[in-house]
């Protein structure tokens, strides 16, 4: 039996019934509750909880709720919701000491997990996450029978999220509505229907739905990467739509399909958002080491500083705070806009993309076609018995002298022609990720092959 349980500073993730069980989730909830209680001085308080649509979600929500209540903290259940909706609710709820979201994001349906939210409405910093992890591994006690926390409901979080996006000064709802966009929306039977659909309708879009039923039975691999968006592309062509939108199950990533039904690649979501925000609200831009050069190109087009950070939302947010960024995110379709909050947010990204299209007067395909494009190649290496440090050291030693090396997160190598490859162990799956990019497909593939050829072989 595969008993994979991935434990990191950002939470836990595993296969339900194998590595991830209600007992494990309750123990992690208790560890988080212990951390929250100590951080607040032990005065008691409220933790918000919510989940995506996975079939195991309600079971694990009950378990994590029990763990938190065992620490003498009250729990408010937000129900089924997007991860960014939960973070926004924690930020806006004065009594909230933090939040726990039951989701495995883009992982397959048999997976689930927990994301940990600080009272500021951001994911925990790596340092705080390690503190919770240490408490989980050591185990924590609980309060006496008469001090157990209560459980209630928090209504309206989804509606409030949509309202906050529509209220942003950078979003001109009237100009978007004037375009009368015809849009195909693919929510992969996840939580996106609760925010994406009402937002698009409020912005005057005619919406054709693909897999909007929120039952958690994903009809395809849920990660919104080009190879998984064939059905969306077919619907765009069949319906004569202006473009297609796809989100992952917990709705923090947005991918785009142009008017021909062709996926443009997740990096373009942040690229276009950067160009819009950089023009209207100039300021620094931050993305991670695995994101496309197209994002840096967008920052250069509008004349704003550009920075890279290690992969992981908490790392990107930390760098954004350091440099005072007006926008940032990750090239997987995750846009972070501090004008709303400091987390990846697909409904927010949707509004920014619609605003960009409304201002341009062009189609998505025309916009992408006029800008420099790159070919990105993404691969996975099963960690199994792989000695990851040995692989990274082998790559470092094999790199030519004229290649730039960045060791912030695994290893990122950039050649003089701008081609690059980033190799790092995943924090969400038992794999090593290999991401390569160049102006030509064969060049990107060559770099990925160069990495694979240096994977240490068993004796």
Secondary structure elements and pairings:
Layout: E1 5-8, E2 11-15, H1 22-39, E3 46-51, H2 57-69, E4 74-80, H3 83-92, E5 96-102, E6 111-117, H4 126-138, E7 151-153, H5 157-166, H6 173-179, E8 182-186, H7 196-202, E9 206-210, H8 230-239, E10 243-247, E11 254-257, H9 267-280, E12 285-288, H10 293-301, E13 306-309, H11 313-323, E14 327-330, E15 334-336, H12 346-360, H13 364-369, E16 375-382, H14 388-398, E17 404-406, E18 411-414, E19 420-425, E20 431-438, H15 441-452
Parallel strand pairs: 3-4, 3-5, 4-7, 8-9, 8-10, 12-13, 12-14
Antiparallel strand pairs: 1-2, 2-6, 5-6, 10-11, 14-15, 16-20, 17-18, 18-19, 19-20
Helix pairs in contact: 1-2, 1-4, 3-5, 5-7, 6-12, 9-10, 9-12
